[in-house]
Amino acid sequence: MKTFNYLRATDVDVALQRIAVEPGARFLGGGTNLVDLMREGIEAPETLIDITRLPLDGIEELPDGGLRIGALVRNSDLAAHPVVRGRYPFLSQAILLGATGQIRNMATVGGNLLQRTRCLYFYDEASACNKREPGAGCAAREGFNRGNAVLGTSDACVATHPSDMAVALAAIDAVVEVRSSRGTRHIPLTEFHLLPGTTPHLESQLESDELITAVELPPLPVAAHSYYRKVRDRASYAFALVSVAAALDFGADGRIADVRLALGGVATKPWRARTAEQLLLGAAASEDSFATAAAAELAAAVPLPGNAFKIDLACRTVVAVLRRLTTERSGS
Amino acid sequence: MPELRLRINGEDHKADVAPQVSLLDVLREHLWLTGTKKGCDQGACGACTVLVDGRRIVSCLALAVQYEGREITTIEGVDHPLQEAFVRHDGLQCGYCTPGQICSAIGMLSEHAAGAPSAATEALAPEALTPAEIRERMSGNICRCGAYNGIAEAIQEVAS
């Protein structure tokens, strides 16, 4: 690993002032992705500003019933929080289905959002990758692309966003709070990550001098009836081939009164399935309506030879999760 | 580079290392605490698991400088019923993953006792530590000899 300067931040404002004048610096959280990328030579910051001792590790209930999650809350602590378990169960499930106990104890909420793709060709320096080296080409298109995306892709890039947590946050309409020495802004999670387009090396709206300080969850009654399912090659500790975050509620007439749906493992960013949601809202809860909505969402999919199976798998997983939530509701 | 001060197994240690050196490499190569093992060096196998302030982490992805002042426990500082239980249940063959398995299991048992759920937990908080719970919670530790049945039994015995 290339050497770097190490600074330990003890004050948010000082950290922000420092990064504003040092463009080659990066913030260091749990390090579970960044340290690995630095060891592989894919990232080579000149300075690391360690932010893990900043007071951004609290979880706070908001007066409106929402939740404010400090950016440095460890993944395991967020997943175990009673309010998350009770009011946003699919967020807890999504986190617990990612990584391992050890890594969840290290990884932070902010870092989880900023983790980089595990596309094999992004990690392999001998291969062409537009994300790693703009203009180099994309070896995944002609390569082993079983794990790659079918939604939100471009000619330049088919890499998936690897986070499970972010998929549930997309369904929740979470808001990312970011700060710099220029001020504070709030970015909806669904807009935080960028589609690759012709610039796959640009992955989020976060500017180089900005720090994620918190993620806020709005109050969302439907989220109490939610579920996250992850389909993968191993039963544990593997990235998703397909994942589905869904929340469902019914009106007095038995029709779908509220629904949230997001997909992971199939898209270049945490994928809010708004097309499917619109079709489901007001519909009867039936296998037909679930299947129609899933198919409509996946209609835009662009498959590669190795990952075409994901389209059908995503549709079936959406139907299975919605069926489960329907059964739970009618049973309660 | 200022000298790094680490607190390991209740003792203060000093090491003169660059910031890119992992906690794992400081333990093994600078302090000669070689009980902690290097397997994949990328967070995938769990052989390097140690406890920091009682919580299990993988020391290969941990930059040592980040852990100054923390209470680090390695297998050399462990005296726990799990160790005898691993021997009794044949929870090892070559033994290379064992220090990581033991440290991980200690951390895992505290997480469970503190009410932390796992992906195998259906209720709001976990109840008994079932075989399914143990296997899911220990999935960050790989044993290439495949001594998993013995490992799970040893942990089960100590948990109950």
Would you mind describing this structure in some detail?
The complex is a heterodimer of chains A (332) and B (160). With 332 residues, chain A is of the alpha+beta class. Among the domains of chain A are: 5-53, Uridine Diphospho-n-acetylenolpyruvylglucosamine Reductase, domain 2 (2-Layer Sandwich), CATH 3.30.43; 223-331, Enolase-like, domain 1 (2-Layer Sandwich), CATH 3.30.390. In chain A, 32% of the residues lie in helices and 19% in strands. Chain A has 13 helices and 12 strands. A 5-stranded antiparallel beta sheet of chain A has the order 4-5-8-6-7. In chain A, strands 9-10-11-12 form a 4-stranded antiparallel beta sheet, with helices on both faces. In chain A, strands 1-3-2 form a 3-stranded parallel beta sheet, with no helix packed on it. In chain A, a hairpin with a 6-residue loop joins strand 11 (256-264) and strand 12. The relative contact order of chain A is 0.13. Chain B has 160 residues and is α+β, with helices and mostly antiparallel strands. Chain B folds into 2 domains: 4-77, Ubiquitin-like (UB roll); 81-159, [2Fe-2S]-binding domain (DNA polymerase, domain 1). Chain B contains 5 helices and 5 strands. Chain B has helices at 23-30, 81-88, 98-113, 131-137, 148-159; strands spanning 4-8, 11-15, 49-52, 55-58, 71-73. Chain B has a 5-stranded mixed beta sheet with strand order 2-1-5-3-4, sandwiched between helices. In chain B, helix 2 (81-88) crosses helix 5. Chain B is globular and about 45 Å long. The chains are: A alpha+beta (332), B alpha+beta (160). Chain A binds chain B through residues 1-6, 8, 28, 31-32, 35-36, 38-39, 48, 50, 52, 76, 79-80, 82, 85-86, 92-93, 96-97, 99-103, 105-106, 236-237, and chain B through 18-20, 22, 41-44, 46, 49, 55-58, 61-63, 65-66, 104, 107-108, 111, 114-119, 121, 124-125, 135-140.
